[in-house]
Design a protein that fits this description.
6 helices, 23% strand, Purple Acid Phosphatase, chain A, domain 2, single chain, binds zinc ion
């Protein structure tokens, strides 16, 4: 099975994928979130409504474009897609309810708190959950999804804590050089050893790393034309950077 992984488009239509699909002919596409941008820190005075209206149009256009490839596309949502607590979601949601919108599409499916069979593999998906909202349920849900599964592919927006893919690489950031990944994901990976964790979120860290038996893959920053081709069961990874 060949997977095309690409995420973090942040409202930019990923036209670069068309060529990649033509060359590599993936069986499925997985996209780990951040279709929206939202820009909760950019609030042009008096233009908020127009700003969010435009943001919603761009996000819908990205999702429709992905749907048009006529290949099964599995997604989870990122922090920019679920930011109810972080920006003026009441204004934004007037223009876009992303869960509702995805239901109108043919090929794009959200895999949140769910598992689906893909031949001999099980895809277990979970949306981004803000740190302050990571209740014991999150751990309980991951446990329920992953136990007794073989050949699991854990599919998340966030990255597990502690491997090189969760290091902030931005000299202007006070967190430069620090690990900022998710400790719950690290726990789940160590406990259940999925064969693969496909994540996203850390735009600067296209790449792979190993946690125990699990290969963690970040396909990179989709807004800049990055992606990954994953061949199973061999776990051969090709990173693409346009
Ligand atoms: Zn992102």
């Amino acid at each position: 099975m060949r997977i095309l992984a690409a995420s973090d488009f942040h409202e930019k239509k990923p036209v670069y994928l068309k060529k990649i699909i033509k060359i590599y002919k993936p069986d499925i596409i997985v996209s780990s979130g951040d279709f929206c941008q939202g820009d909760w820190f950019i609030r042009p005075k008096g233009k908020k409504n127009a700003h969010f209206k435009k943001a919603a149009i761009k996000t819908k256009s990205t999702l429709k474009y992905l749907d048009s490839f006529n290949i099964p596309i599995y997604i989870v949502l990122g922090n920019h897609d679920v930011s109810k607590t972080h920006y003026d979601f009441s204004t934004y949601s007037k223009h876009l309810d992303i869960n509702k919108f995805i239901k109108t599409l043919k090929n794009v499916k959200i895999i949140h708190n769910k598992k689906i069979k893909l031949g001999q593999f099980t895809l277990v998906g979970y949306n981004y959950i803000f740190r302050e909202k990571r209740s014991p349920d999150y751990k309980k849900n991951l446990t329920a999804l992953m136990k007794k599964q073989k050949n699991t592919i854990l599919f998340t927006h966030d990255v597990p804590y502690g491997c090189k893919l969760d290091i902030i690489r931005n000299k202007k950031s006070p967190y430069n050089g620090k690990h900022v990944g998710d400790k719950y994901l690290l726990w789940a990976i160590k406990k259940y050893s999925p064969i693969l964790n496909i994540c996203g979120h850390m735009h600067e860290n296209q790449g792979k790393c190993k946690i125990g038996k699990t290969l963690v893959v970040n396909p990179g920053f989709g807004q800049n034309g990055e992606a990954a081709i994953i061949d199973l069961p061999k776990l051969k990874i090709k990173f693409i950077k346009l």
